[in-house]
Amino acid sequence: MKELIAPHGGRLIDRWVGGAERERFLERSRTFKSVKLSQREVSDLEMLAIGAFSPLEGFQGSADYKSILANKRLANGLPWTIPITLSVSKAQADNLPVDSYVSLLSPNGQVLAILELEEKYPRAKEEEPQRVYGTIDQDHPGVAALLQAGEIMLAGKVFVVNRPVQPIFINIA
After folding, report:
1. What's domain 19-160's superfamily in CATH?
2. What does DSSP assign to residue 165?
3. Is the pLDDT of residue 169 over 70?
4. What's the rounded Cα separation, in Å, for the pair 33 and 21?
């Protein structure tokens, strides 16, 4: 039997929390401040949870962000071309202290994860679209998403407690 190739960065990251630990996080999440995620951020959270973004354990900090923009690599030198970030408005960021826990909510208000907030830093809104997508054309979906995003980034490990509930649409035609 052939051996599997190693995950990017050497180990597969699993950010799902289950059992009693999940229940403790859910109970405590009621006392945490919260951030409602965009659909794009929910998708990034799911990718973090299942290890698709290994070796990342959460939303990237400023050292990785700056290194990706400058060198298309994480700060440790591992190739990485698109920042995996969580952004909020300055007003929201001012209300979230570093070294606290933040509940991450789906667009409909469901607790999806807990962020261990390690850092807040400004988004390079002028530089990021050109460095990441090679354009500032607002018709590019990535550029459009960046221009709508908040100006302050939140970084830290995530502890994922729920999958998002997706609405079911039935076409009766």
Report:
1. Sulfate adenylyltransferase (3.10.400.10)
2. P
3. no
4. 19
